């Protein structure tokens, strides 16, 4: 019989037996070296193997201060994985557990033991999770004599793990300048070129979803509530495409749009037009909710406030106006600069706003007070694009240079945190949700830039899940439709919805006075259907007459009661003693 080829299921001895003597020695030598490297690596990491059949792993730091549930039978900590520091275990400990000595029934005793094991496991897992520090974000730290802005993307990619390094890439495309947009969960990317090029992709796995050319000017792109629907503002109208590039809808009501924003909790697609029109379209029903002319000229600068779904528009007069679909006038108007605005963005908490103007200045504002700027920076160029990250970092672009500043709203920053030079003039900036990545759209394509410390490390899977499956996506879509917020609730202060509308004392007095000059209200009453012998017109007319007379009687009684109160007050005033100074009293 011939030799069988070694398969992945063969053991080490089988593989060694199928090799020739010369190659066998080389293979054994290489295997021994790998084992030595693995053992040394395990020792440095704190892992210890078994000492034999009867040997057990000994813990070096036995501590009797720990609860019994976190100690083994000999008094040490629970063996197995790398030991957890005692301070962390004591922090999450729930005290000594129940030993079950007083429980007589075996079923209840086993149930109690399972519960204690679950508590022990959860305590250890909570302590291990704190060691990983998932709430803390890592930033670039420079040595003495260095600054973080001198590090380029190649140096950062070489210093991080291979997964993070793969998130830094450049797309050299020929149909620019481009506009880009990340989906809500940060997993999908859409880009649109001015010369008609549209592409969507899973940028983490680099899987292309669709790529088309509409042979028409593309002004802006925007993901809707799911990654299977993409809104594209083209030369004349707004089109909706699916993730395969198939046209689903043509929204001719949204014409000549320059910028788009999608409000995910209200299912509203907002557009700012070239002719100054601001429109809101409900994509769940396909109807225009509100539209009006702002009378502020060309609208090429629009962002949304994620806190209250208010749209912020930047104008050539240096002002920022805030709009709601319920009011035809701006809810608030701020004079931010003395020159035309070039950039505008609001952070995800809705507290801070950053603006840039043609006078080479950048200002940060507190939207809760709407007073003077918190900080003001003078740049060496015009900041055309601005973007907030989830952790408060601000990115701005000047030509083909992108600079990132670390927390410029709360502190006065003198130097940039990071600097990147792109291949072309930058036309759009956006930080990827839940990732330390900045998306840069420019005239020559798209660049994904690593910005350590910019992304939120924790995500709510019920809110936006980067790893959701198809069934989870469908379930989330149905749930969001059921929980849809009506556009009438969009206000500058969303907390006013929870307040109670209590009429004031003056309102009550005015309502009482108005009754004296009113006629009895007409009552539109329809009697209910009865048996055939009582459902004639005579019975119906009689029932209507009875109800109307009762209504008039109640109204007259209320009116007469108020008249009596007024007359009693007049009598009291007449009985009062006269005084010379009475002529200065207000006339009744």
TrEMBL record:
UniProt-annotated location(s): Nucleus, Nucleolus
Sequence segments annotated as region (Disordered): 1-33, 48-97, 563-588
Pfam families: BING4CT, WD40
Record-annotated BING4 C-terminal domain positions: 416-494
Keywords, comma-separated and alphabetical: Nucleus, Repeat, rRNA processing, WD repeat
PROSITE patterns on file: WD_REPEATS_1 (PS00678), WD_REPEATS_2 (PS50082), WD_REPEATS_REGION (PS50294)
Gene Ontology biological-process annotations: maturation of SSU-rRNA from tricistronic rRNA transcript (SSU-rRNA, 5.8S rRNA, LSU-rRNA)
UniProt repeat feature WD, residue ranges: 334-368
The keyword Acyltransferase belongs to this UniProt entry's keyword annotation: no
Keyword match rRNA processing: yes
Biased composition (Basic and acidic residues): 1-13, 84-97, 579-588
Any one cellular-component term (Gene Ontology): 90S preribosome
Superkingdom assignment: Eukaryota
PANTHER family in UniProt: WD REPEAT-CONTAINING PROTEIN 46, WD-REPEAT PROTEIN BING4
Name of the protein this chain belongs to: WD repeat-containing protein 46
Species of origin: Thrips palmi (Melon thrips)
Gene name of this polypeptide: LOC117649999
């Amino acid at each position: 019989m011939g030799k069988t080829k070694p398969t992945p299921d063969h053991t080490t001895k089988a593989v060694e037996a199928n090799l020739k003597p010369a190659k066998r020695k080389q293979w054994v030598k290489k295997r021994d070296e790998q084992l030595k490297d693995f053992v040394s690596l395990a020792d440095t990491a704190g892992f210890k193997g078994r000492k034999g059949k009867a040997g057990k792993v000994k813990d070096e730091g036995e501590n009797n201060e720990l609860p019994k549930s976190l100690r083994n039978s000999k008094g040490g900590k629970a063996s197995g994985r790398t030991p957890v520091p005692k301070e962390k275990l004591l922090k999450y400990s729930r005290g000594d557990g129940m030993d079950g000595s007083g429980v007589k029934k075996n079923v209840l005793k086993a149930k109690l033991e399972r519960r204690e094991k679950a508590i022990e496991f959860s305590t250890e897992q909570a302590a291990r999770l704190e060691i990983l520090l998932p709430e803390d974000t890592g930033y670039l730290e420079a040595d003495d004599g260095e600054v973080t802005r001198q590090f380029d993307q190649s140096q950062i990619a070489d210093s991080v793990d291979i997964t993070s390094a793969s998130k830094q890439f450049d797309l050299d495309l020929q149909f620019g300048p481009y506009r880009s947009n990340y989906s809500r969960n940060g997993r999908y990317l859409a880009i649109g070129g001015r010369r008609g090029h549209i592409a969507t992709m899973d940028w983490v796995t680099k899987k292309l979803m669709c790529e088309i050319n509409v042979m028409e000017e593309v002004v802006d792109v925007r993901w809707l509530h799911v990654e299977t629907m993409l809104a594209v503002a083209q030369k004349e109208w707004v089109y909706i495409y699916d993730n395969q590039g198939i046209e689903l809808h043509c929204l001719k009501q949204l014409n000549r749009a320059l910028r788009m924003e999608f409000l995910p909790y209200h299912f509203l697609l907002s557009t700012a037009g070239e002719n100054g029109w601001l429109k809101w379209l409900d994509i769940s029903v396909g109807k225009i909710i509100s539209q009006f002319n702002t009378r502020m000229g060309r609208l090429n600068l629009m962002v949304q406030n994620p806190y209250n779904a208010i749209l912020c528009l930047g104008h050539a007069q240096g002002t920022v106006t805030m709009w709601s679909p319920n009011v035809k006038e701006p809810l608030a108007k701020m004079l931010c600069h003395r020159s035309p605005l070039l950039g505008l963005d609001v952070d995800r908490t809705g507290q801070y706003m950053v603006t840039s103007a043609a006078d080479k200045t950048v200002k940060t504002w507190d939207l809760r007070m709407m007073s003077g700027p918190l900080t003001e920076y003078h740049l060496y160029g015009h900041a055309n694009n601005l973007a907030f990250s989830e952790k408060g970092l601000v990115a701005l672009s000047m030509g083909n240079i992108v600079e990132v500043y670390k927390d410029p709203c709360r502190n006065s920053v003198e130097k940039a945190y990071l600097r990147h030079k792109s291949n072309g003039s930058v036309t759009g900036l956006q930080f990827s949700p839940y990732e330390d990545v900045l998306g840069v759209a420019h005239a020559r394509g798209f660049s994904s830039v690593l910005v350590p410390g910019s992304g939120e490390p924790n995500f709510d899977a019920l809110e936006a899940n980067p790893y959701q499956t198809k069934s989870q996506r469908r379930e989330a879509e149905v749930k969001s439709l059921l929980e849809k917020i009506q556009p009438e609730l969009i206000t500058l202060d969303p907390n006013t919805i929870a307040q109670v509308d209590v009429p004031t004392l003056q309102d009550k007095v005015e309502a009482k006075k108005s009754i004296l000059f009113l006629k009895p209200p007409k009552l539109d009453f329809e009697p209910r259907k009865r048996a055939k012998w009582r459902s004639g017109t005579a019975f119906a007319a009689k029932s209507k007459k009875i109800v109307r007379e009762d209504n008039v009687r109640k109204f007259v009684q209320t009116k007469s009661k108020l008249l009596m109160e007024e007359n009693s007050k007049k009598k009291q005033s007449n009985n009062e003693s006269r005084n010379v100074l009475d002529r200065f009293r207000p006339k009744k």
